[in-house]
Amino acid sequence: MPLLAFGQDSGELELDQDSHIQQVIPPAMVDDQLDPFATKPIDFSQVEITTLTPADKYISATTPLAVGLMLGTVSLVVYTLVSQSNPRAED
Q1: SS3 content of the chain, % helix, strand, coil (to 5)
Q2: Measured distance CA(71)–CA(68) in Å, rounded
Q3: How high is the pLDDT of residue 65?
Q4: What are phi and psi of 22, to 5 degrees?
Q5: Are 55 and 62 within 8 A, CB to CB?
Q6: Which residues touch 52 (CB under 8 Å, ≥6 apart)?
Q7: Distance separating alpha carbons of residues 91 and 80, to the nearest angstrom
Q8: Which of 11, 15, 27, 76 sits in a 20 to 30 Å window from 38, CA-based?
Q9: pTM (2 decimals)?
């Protein structure tokens, strides 16, 4: 039985020899590499305040492309249907 195997030990756990010594962690050195722009002043003339999200900007940029592709596809379908319905058209 596994419970009896634990009972046969001496009852005390053996710790490392140096477990009673406390280790002191030195403080971290902070330099300018954490945030190099934190010390520079903010140029408010380049700040743009808008309610558009990046998704809104993406949609407004790709909508003309999607509309153009859709109109091109519809016009090709109409052209194909008209050309196939014409009895004089011979391919």
Answers
A1: 45, 0, 55
A2: 5
A3: 95
A4: -85, 140
A5: no
A6: 60
A7: 12
A8: 27
A9: 0.40
Tens-digit pLDDT profile for residues 30-59 = 665 666 666 677 788 888 888 988 899 999
Using DSSP's 3-state secondary structure scheme, residue 8 falls into coil
Structure tokens at 82: 């008209």
| DSSP at 36 | T
Q: Shortest CA distance to 74 belongs to which of 85, 64, 82?
A: 82
How far is residue 64's CA from residue 68's CA, in Å, rounded to a whole number? 6
Q: Which amino acid is at 70?
A: M
Phi and psi of 86, rounded to 5°? -75, 120
